[in-house]
Amino acid sequence: MKGLWFSELQTSTLKISCMTKSVLCSEQSQYQNVAVLDTLPYGRMLVLDDVIQTTVKDEFIYHEMISLVALNTHPFPRNVLIIGGGDGGTLREVTRHPAVEKATLVEIDEKVIEASRKYLPQIGSAFDDPKAEIVVADGIKHVQEHENEYDVIIIDSTDPVGPAVGLFSEDFYRQVHRALKDDGILVAQTESPFFNEELVSSVYKSLKKIFAISKVYLATVPSYPGGLWCFTMGSKKYDPEQVDLEKIPPLNTRYYNPQIHKAAFVLPNFIAELLK
Ligand code: AAT
Fold this sequence. Notes:
Elements: E1 4-11, E2 14-28, E3 33-39, E4 43-48, E5 51-55, H1 59-71, E6 79-84, H2 89-95, E7 102-107, H3 110-119, E8 132-136, H4 139-144, E9 150-156, H5 170-179, E10 180-189, H6 197-210, E11 213-220, E12 228-235, H7 258-263, H8 269-274
Parallel strand pairs: 6-7, 6-9, 7-8, 9-10
Antiparallel strand pairs: 1-2, 2-3, 3-4, 4-5, 10-12, 11-12
Bound molecules: S-adenosyl-1,8-diamino-3-thiooctane.
S-adenosyl-1,8-diamino-3-thiooctane binds near residues 83, 84 and 87.
């Protein structure tokens, strides 16, 4: 045997396992167990309370897709807020976008940032970028304290357990709406359309009540339950499907491109059904 098996309990009746060469760190923080594993199939992997958050092998798909769809829908995404995302992958994508002047990352757990800095340098590469400001705080509180300030707010949160529960509530989305400028855009990771149908449906319906435009789009993230993953956008003014694809700046990406931007909004029938 080349290593030991790490298993994630993806639902109460489904486990996924991967062969692990070593545990680079495993530490209990105030909020969760923070671990970085070195695995054979995915390379290094950030694991919080035994749940896979991101891996070196497939992180580009999630981080490009949670960031670039909104950044290229807004014509001037100068001031961006990221809630969660303590691994820094979303921050890396946001800071390297040419239109962005400032990116604020609000992560509740300092230990996630520390672990990523130390063990995931390819992902946590932008913490010291001149455009970046790092705040260790609860994203819910931060949003309540800011009004009419951000062009884009990205909610890169853990699954809806513990401190992340409030990040999926309608009341929180109203606060986000208030923290955005009058043409602002919110985007949130909203889990699996296969295993979290109710969440996908309820977040979409909440955003539909609050924002002029509300849309779900998809990407495939192999290390997440079921692979197929939802992102939900609420926009005050700009429609992500009306973007002039020729105006998207050339970006050095591995997944996202203008055709993917467009195609990501095409939903299979079973997902469209969830949004009715
Ligand atoms: N970039 C992909 C990684 C994540 S991690 C999500 C982060 O959200 C965690 O570091 C967690 O500590 C942080 N977080 C949770 N609640 C809050 C809060 N209230 N305020 C600020 N940060 C918070 C996302 C992975 C998605 C996994 C899907 N299975």
